[in-house]
Amino acid sequence: MQCELDIFFLEAVLNGLLLAGLLALLALGLNLVFGVIDVVWICYAELVMVGMYGINYAYKTGAPFVVAALFGILLVAFAGLLLHQLVIRPVLESAPINQLLVTGGVLFVLQAAATLAFGIDFKTLGIRLGSLNIYDMSFAYSRIITFAVASAAMLVLWLFLSRSYIGIAIRAIAQDRQIMPLMGVDHRTIYLVTSAIGGGLAGLAAVLMVLQYDIYPQIGLQFGPLIFMICVLGGLGSMIGGFIAAFLISEFIAIGGSCFATEWGYAIAFLFFMIVIFIRPQGLFGGKA
Amino acid sequence: MLELANVDAGYGGFQALFGISMSVKPGEAVAVIGANGAGKTTLLRIISGLLPMSSGAMTMNGVPLREIPPHKVIATGIAHVPEGRRLFPRLSVENNLKIGAYIPSARAKFSERLAFIYELFPRLKERRSQLAGTLSGGEQQMCAIGRALMSGPKLLLFDEPSMGLAPVIVAQVFELVRRIRSEGYTVLIVEQNVRQVLKFADRGYLLEAGRIKTSGTAAEMLASDDIREAYMGL
Amino acid sequence: MMRLSRSALIGLAVLIALPFLIRFFFAGSERYYLHLLIQIFIWAFIYTGWSIMGRFGLTSLGHGAFTGIGAYGCVLLWNYVGLTPWFGIPIAIVAAVLVALLVGYPCFHLRITGHYFALLTLALTELVRLCIVGLRDYTGGSLGTQPKRYGDGFSLYALQFETDRVISFYIALALWLAGLVVWMWVDRSMDRYALEAASQDEEAAASVGIDVTREKLKVTAISAAMCALGGAVYGQYQMYIGPDTIAGLGVSLNIVFAVIAGGLWVMLGPTVGAVFTQVLSEVLRVTIQSTAGLQSAFGSSVLALDTLIYGLLLVLFIIYMPKGILGTILERREKKSASARAAPANAV
């Protein structure tokens, strides 16, 4: 174990911050859907995976990266819509566990479909962006861009939710669903819009991830549980909570990973998560327990 | 303006309203009184579409309401100020008002209506950025009324506006409703505070166990011995 | 104690005679069919274990953790400490139960339910999987590991029996039957009513004196123990364990799917689920391998096709048949007999 407070430690801390941007973006989509519709998309990471494959496909068939990125975002936004309309809506009224299980089924379907369609080989876009070197620290540009884009996206979303009519309706429906018709709001529309936004955010995350990670069908299992953990830690449905939780967890991973082996960083993060939940079961900023 | 003919309604196997027939004419202020559980709130929910009726007919300015999905009722000109205010606690006052203007026809008039509401309720203007959940009872009532007004309705439904408010505030609330009425809005109020509401309304209906027991002008009802004994403790 | 119905006794007799029947009818492929049955019985045992919690609304997505602890605990103690599984398995079970109680107590005490509970258990299963992979020097990491063969692979001391399928079959059968006994025992106990009350309305249950937390911990312990035992036996039979075959989210979801498919609230539901899933896997595998066209299209991805169908079925089951195959069949029979009973009264 090599863990001194040196430049490498600082590098790890800063890398953790950069990672937090991506994780916060991922948590955001999940929290939004949960806060509004009261459903957890267990297959959320798999939606990101679909986006990654979609972007890869578009890019490899000649589209410029930005076009491929846009395609990816729209693809997953549409997937979110379909998910809600076909799978979630029929079980909205039944026990919450059914909703979890049904998205669990979709998780299997997406993973399997990806394996059958694309095989288990790792794919990559082959985009290399290099690194920024300051003092003795090295930061991949892909990570810096990820952080910047994720932050910008969150800002845009925040503006949308606080200024636009639909955005306000989305926030309102999470607070009091029953009276929404009184204001002329059709909750089905709001749910669809929310699902599309949730999917879109996953798509954006996919764009950022193809710059950093290779694509394979099981990739969802790598970060899916992590995202759930972050959301629950921050308080399911709280976007600020997701933000802060993402930061905390990223730091655990980054620092733990640099001091020990990678798995232990994650393991410590999970352990931390469980301890916090036992002290405060509704999460850091959670309302309902 | 609003016509109900022989409306039945209930929750699951339990019937709450039996053969309700009533009407509200333009410019009127109509009161519906009755004890707890008589069906007053159910009645308003039927009108605003939150609860479907099981039989009967209901029209607003000739438009049949039974076939319309709940979220389209507001477009016919009916706005409902719900029981207990039901503001969105974690939205600001202004956003609560804004969501009231959600329907397309209201969005176009948002700024001018907002200005009108702030003129009507200066306290709301002071607290425009404050979270609605932190307002006092009276202020919440103002905000709820304002939210309903933002859609530019013709008929306002008030569900127990005095509930949970101190007597001093109750008087203020009724004063507000009076003012709104003088601006030209038609008003249907469901209330437990019989004395206050009958002083202010033109006509009234007495609801008992889901049926209309009596109706008449406010003066008639105020003078009625039954009502005085049963509902005003005299 | 328990009176077995006539059909149950006949069924039991058939099962006990099964290896000999198979040897008689399917002489050449005896090992294959026995292998299939062994898988079914071991998994049915594990699924039944899960359902003891699941039927009371305690839907855990973390049971992969317990099967993993059972399997890895037993194998690692054998490989590195030379401890015979006769001790190793109980120790692993105790470990799993401790973990279950450690996690369960705060959950139940703090009334964590629904989404939060499921996600918390999901985190647990991930934590265990991460630890397994992290300890790769001992566990072989993602590649998995094997219990060291003792002698020729058939040994009472090392509890290795894979070479003799018939003995393995009876072990699996005994395990499965034991699981059913436990299920019945819980079903007939006061705990069952206490837990059903609690799953409807915890506050009301508490107010009549039910110690909700203790009741939940009891079933959790039983459930975790069963899954740990099942995981360990599975490891001893397969002679191979991996972080994704006997632990992890995939296993957790598999368990849930099978029980949902078979029927959560019925004793034999999980068993039906096991039959369903295992047979489905086999049918797919055989069909693909024997059909040239499919073989070239799917050859290496049989597992994926499996998973795809599972996923689709899970979605469809939850939406259209939440009571599972067996549960729905039983429900239909109930309705038929209820209307048959009502008819004569109506006629009068």
Secondary structure layout:
The complex is a heterotrimer of chains A (289), B (234) and C (348).
Chain A: H1 7-37, H2 44-60, H3 65-88, H4 96-118, E1 131-134, E2 137-140, H5 141-163, H6 165-175, H7 187-210, H8 219-234, H9 239-259, H10 262-279
Antiparallel strand pairs in A: 1-2
Chain B: E1 2-11, E2 14-24, E3 29-33, H1 40-48, E4 55-60, E5 63-64, E6 78-81, H2 93-100, H3 104-107, H4 110-120, H5 122-126, H6 137-149, E7 155-159, H7 167-182, E8 186-191, H8 194-200, E9 203-208, E10 211-217, H9 218-223, H10 225-232
Parallel strand pairs in B: 3-8, 3-9, 6-7, 7-8
Antiparallel strand pairs in B: 1-2, 1-4, 4-5, 9-10
Chain C: H1 6-25, H2 30-54, H3 63-81, H4 85-109, H5 114-134, H6 136-139, H7 165-188, H8 190-200, H9 202-207, H10 212-238, H11 248-262, H12 269-290, H13 292-298, H14 302-320, H15 324-347
Task: Outline the structure in words.
With 289 residues, chain A is mainly alpha-helical. Chain A contains 10 helices and 2 strands. Chain A has a single domain, classed as Orthogonal Bundle (ABC transporter involved in vitamin B12 uptake, BtuC), CATH 1.10.3470. Chain A has a two-stranded antiparallel ribbon with strand order 1-2. In chain A, α1 runs parallel beside α5 and α5 packs across α6. In chain B, α2 runs parallel beside α6 and α6 packs parallel to α7. By secondary structure, chain C is an all-alpha fold. Chain C has a single domain, classed as ABC transporter involved in vitamin B12 uptake, BtuC (Orthogonal Bundle), CATH 1.10.3470. The radius of gyration of chain C is 21 Å and the shape is globular. The chains are: A mainly alpha (289), B alpha/beta (234), C mainly alpha (348). Chains in contact: A-B, A-C.
Q: Strand order within the widest sheet of chain A?
A: 1-2
Structural class of chain A: mainly alpha
Number of helices of chain B: 10
Radius of gyration of chain B: 17 Å
Terminal Cα span of chain A: 38 Å
Through-space gap between termini of chain B: 35 Å
For this structure, the quaternary state is heterotrimer
Q: Tell me, what is the CATH class of chain B?
A: Alpha Beta
- Percent helix of chain B, as a range, is 25-40%
Spatial shape of chain A:
globular
Stated plainly, the CATH topology of chain A is called ABC transporter involved in vitamin B12 uptake, BtuC
Largest sheet of chain B: 6 strands, mixed
Q: Are there runs of chain B of 5+ residues with pLDDT below 50, and where?
A: none
